[in-house]
Amino acid sequence: MRRSIVWFKTDLRLHDNETLVKAIAKSDEIIPVYCFDEAQFKVTEYGFKKTGSFRAQFLLESVADLDKNLRELGSGLIILKGKPEVEIPKIVQEYKAYKVFAKREVAHEEKQTEAIVQAELFKLRCEFETLSTSTLYHAEDLPFSIKDIPDVFTNFRKKTEKDAVIRTVFQKPLRIKSPKIAEINLPTLNDLGLGKIAIDSRAVLHFKGGETEGLQRIQHYFFETKSISKYKETRNGMIGADYSSKFSAWLAMGCLSPREIYFELKKYETQYEANESTYWLVFELLWRDYFRFMMKKYRTKFFQLAGIQNKGIKVNKHNIQVLQSWIAGATGVDFVDANMIELKLTGFMSNRGRQNVTSYLCNDLKLDWRYGAAYFEQQLIDYDVCSNWGNWAYLAGVGNDPRGNRYFNIEKQAQDYDKNEAYRNLWLNVID
């Protein structure tokens, strides 16, 4: 009996999941597991939790949905809690598994965890195979090696679009053979050391975790509302569910794959229309790929003050009061404050808002940009390590921006994107 473990991480889906498909093909039985890694719920050196309540709630919903979908195919999900390097080997021994399949990581801490787990499995003579499942373009299909990827996005995009092909998606398995798996036992937010979240009625969308919800969101945004056809014009909006795709949270947790979105988009283009807006979504997915490949290329440099450019930047001495006023939305700059209050109360903020509050922290307050990135890490429902740290480094002038310092004139931005002050009024007025 060749049994293998499928270790789910940020790939919480059955569609287009090469890890799962390969494991099924190479095994008589598979045992799907998810480990709530205690390291993901600790406080970082910047004083923020690695995972806050909004994302943890989304994660719990995503894991529950994955279990439900697995059970429909004759399997289920085993929940582990603790250190993966301790818990995964225990399961391997219990089920006498010959191999563990998992998604391949690129960021520093995740790579370290992967290496420690692999070393522990080696002691048990258990193989460990990782597969790349997070990007639109597969790293092996790029027209350059990782070390030669251009440091300017436009150069990367043009050559990739011209010379690389997007692989087709892996079909969802029809049936999964597993030993009997007991009912799921999920931790609560409290078990994870987190407080309960309240749903704010002003939130742009009630993000609910899971592949089922993610697929519904694609249907809604593409086929039911056809909002995708005007995405380029509306994407800088700040109020409402459909000014942008809002796929980011499901992408970050791996409930959706970028390729799946791409091929649904192609279907939409065939059925309705292809225009600049439909292309622009692919453009944004390419940025997401780019940050992931950059993280692979530069590793820990994305977490250093000088960034990938090794650039000495002047920052003020760390001032906890100034940082807290930014977090609380109490800077006195209404456009910044409205955005920060939205983030604090909902775990989400528009792309336009993110650029402005980041520029304000880096250029006006002149604080160490990594405190801002770490607060976003705690707070964002759609936090993705590569996109978050890549974007912060970019706007701090130490990342992939060829222009260097990207200063946003906040007053002008507010005038351009919130002319009638509807957004500021929404978030700055206290609700009873």
From TrEMBL:
<keyword id="KW-0157">Chromophore</keyword>
<comment type="similarity">
    <text>Belongs to the DNA photolyase class-1 family.</text>
</comment>
<dbReference type="InterPro" id="IPR005101">
    <property type="entry name" value="Cryptochr/Photolyase_FAD-bd"/>
</dbReference>
<keyword id="KW-0285">Flavoprotein</keyword>
<feature type="binding site">
    <location>
        <begin position="382"/>
        <end position="384"/>
    </location>
    <ligand>
        <name>FAD</name>
    </ligand>
</feature>
<comment type="function">
    <text>May have a photoreceptor function.</text>
</comment>
<dbReference type="GO" id="GO:0000719">
    <property type="term" value="P:photoreactive repair"/>
</dbReference>
<dbReference type="GO" id="GO:0003904">
    <property type="term" value="F:deoxyribodipyrimidine photo-lyase activity"/>
</dbReference>
<dbReference type="InterPro" id="IPR002081">
    <property type="entry name" value="Cryptochrome/DNA_photolyase_1"/>
</dbReference>
<protein>
    <recommendedName>
        <fullName>Cryptochrome DASH</fullName>
    </recommendedName>
</protein>
<keyword id="KW-0274">FAD</keyword>
<feature type="domain" description="Photolyase/cryptochrome alpha/beta">
    <location>
        <begin position="2"/>
        <end position="136"/>
    </location>
</feature>
<dbReference type="InterPro" id="IPR006050">
    <property type="entry name" value="DNA_photolyase_N"/>
</dbReference>
<feature type="binding site">
    <location>
        <begin position="244"/>
        <end position="248"/>
    </location>
    <ligand>
        <name>FAD</name>
    </ligand>
</feature>
<dbReference type="InterPro" id="IPR036155">
    <property type="entry name" value="Crypto/Photolyase_N_sf"/>
</dbReference>
<dbReference type="InterPro" id="IPR014729">
    <property type="entry name" value="Rossmann-like_a/b/a_fold"/>
</dbReference>
<dbReference type="InterPro" id="IPR014133">
    <property type="entry name" value="Cry_DASH"/>
</dbReference>
<dbReference type="Pfam" id="PF03441">
    <property type="entry name" value="FAD_binding_7"/>
</dbReference>
<dbReference type="Pfam" id="PF00875">
    <property type="entry name" value="DNA_photolyase"/>
</dbReference>
<feature type="binding site">
    <location>
        <begin position="284"/>
        <end position="291"/>
    </location>
    <ligand>
        <name>FAD</name>
    </ligand>
</feature>
<dbReference type="GO" id="GO:0003677">
    <property type="term" value="F:DNA binding"/>
</dbReference>
<feature type="binding site">
    <location>
        <position position="231"/>
    </location>
    <ligand>
        <name>FAD</name>
    </ligand>
</feature>
<dbReference type="InterPro" id="IPR036134">
    <property type="entry name" value="Crypto/Photolyase_FAD-like_sf"/>
</dbReference>
<dbReference type="GO" id="GO:0071949">
    <property type="term" value="F:FAD binding"/>
</dbReference>
